[in-house]
Amino acid sequence: MESSQKTKITVETTVKVPVDKVWIYWNAPEHITKWCHASDDWHSPYADNDLKVNGTFKTTMAAKDGSFSFDFGGVYTTVQKYKLIEYTMDDGRMVSISFSGNDDETKITETFEAETMNSIEMQKNGWQAILNNFKTYTETN
């Protein structure tokens, strides 16, 4: 009998800004396009976000040299302002993002179901790199 249990990966960071700023920078398309990439040779030229239960989102991630791009998207299943966002990606995998903190900093914990094409380590490193870009962007803007 095959198990339907999917491997879950967790990445996290603490951003040294209040949760209200984190929330805006995490969800506003004009900010998403500035931080949603894993390395400097990639960028996100397009983002659309309808942050509500059953709302959809899409971010285009692309190599800056034009050699490759893909759309990352899904549908929100839970939205609790300043606390929790959950969604189902277009490929059916689940993601949960929690936000907690105080007036000076916000901890972000992101847990996602792994896919089967890339190693767990590669997926964790990629998602962590994007989260690190978010931290840097949010703390310096």
Task: Please provide a written account of the structure.
There is one protein chain. The protein contains three helices and seven strands. It has helices at 19-27, 29-35, 120-140; strands spanning 8-15, 42-49, 56-63, 69-80, 84-89, 94-101, 106-113. The mean pLDDT is 96.
Q: Numbering strands along the chain, what is their spatial order in the largest sheet? A: 1-7-6-5-4-3-2
Low-pLDDT ranges: none
Note the gap between the termini: 51 Å
Mean pLDDT, as a whole number? 96
Sheet having the most strands: 7 strands, antiparallel
Query: Radius of gyration over alpha carbons?
Result: 15 Å
Specify the helix fraction band. Answer: 25-40%
Determine the strand fraction and express it as a percent band: 35-45%
Q: What is the 3D shape?
A: globular
* DSSP E strands, number: 7
Structural class: alpha+beta
Number of helices: 3
Order of helices and strands: EHHEEEEEEH
Write the layout of secondary structure elements.
Layout (H helix, E strand, L loop, with lengths): L7 E8 L3 H9 L1 H7 L6 E8 L6 E8 L5 E12 L3 E6 L4 E8 L4 E8 L6 H21 L1
Antiparallel strand pairs: 1-7, 2-3, 3-4, 4-5, 5-6, 6-7
Task: Give structural attributes.
7-stranded antiparallel sheet, 41% strand, 141 residues, alpha+beta, 26% helix
Give a concise summary.
The protein has 141 residues and is of the alpha+beta class.
